Amino acid sequence: MIDTSGTFNSTLAVKAALPLGPLSTTIGYTQDDNSDKNTTMGASASMAAGAGTLSIGYVTSDATTDTTQMSAAYSTTMGSAAVAVGYTSTDTDGSANTNTIIGRIS
Questions:
Q1: C-alpha span between 36 and 95 (Å, rounded)
Q2: Chain-centre distance of CA 51, in angstroms?
Q3: CA 53/CA 41 separation, integer angstroms
């Protein structure tokens, strides 16, 4: 997608989903030439693992404040309950890293 509707603003976005063997992968890229000149790139992959699904992701954004985020998650079912556990690490310029572990049963 290309948007050149603004006088000084143009946007480019590309996304592709690719099967790679047992992996389902997605990659994406955006660039926005507004006053912040934001560029974002990300990738994710998921696959069956054991009786559930393992997913990983990575995204980086280069703007006024640069941010990088990485994550991993595993989800499965136990009986009639959905169970998930995940980890996310976020690094933003000028801030301490944020690391989050999430567990969910529903």
A1: 19
A2: 23
A3: 24
- How many Cα atoms are found within 13 Å in the side-chain-facing hemisphere of 4? 1
Euclidean distance between CA atoms 104 and 74, whole angstroms: 11
Q: Quick check: pTM over 0.70? A: yes
Measured CA to CA, the distance from residue 62 to residue 9 in angstroms comes to 17
In this structure, are residues 70 and 57 in contact, taking their beta carbons and an 8 Å threshold? Answer: yes
Indicate whether 10 pLDDT > 80. Answer: no
Rg for the chain, CA atoms, rounded: 17
CA 69/CA 75 separation, integer angstroms: 20
